[in-house]
Design a protein that fits this description.
This protein is mainly alpha-helical and 101 residues long. It has one domain. Helices cover 63% and strands 0% of the residues.
């Protein structure tokens, strides 16, 4: 039996977002741009999920976050976890953008 793979925390966070969106998006209010944004989220997640122990790139993380922000007006929630997920991802991205000393 194979040993379990350690999942990178940001890949797990992206999985949490995808699960969350499966119940919190109002797809009946989607425009074509919302559909494209949601498809981009799926595409990014599908790519990073192939190597769950490897942290996603800055570009993938940034695009994922930007699409989450774009979908905010069709995401209906008062769940504090959603906002915690969002802040955690943003802090991760900022950390990647800061120059190393």
């Amino acid at each position: 039996m194979d040993a379990p793979v350690a999942v990178d925390p940001i890949v797990q966070l992206m999985a949490d977002f995808m699960n969350y969106f499966s119940v919190s998006l109002y797809e009946s209010e989607f425009t074509k741009n919302h559909e494209d944004s949601y498809a981009t989220l799926h595409s990014i997640y599908d790519k990073v999920a192939l190597t769950p122990s490897v942290p996603p790139s800055l570009n993938d993380s940034d695009q994922f976050y930007n699409n989450i922000v774009y979908l905010a007006n069709v995401t209906y929630t008062d769940d504090p976890d959603y906002y915690t997920y969002k802040r955690t991802l943003r802090k991760y991205i900022i950390g990647l953008k800061l120059p190393s000393s």
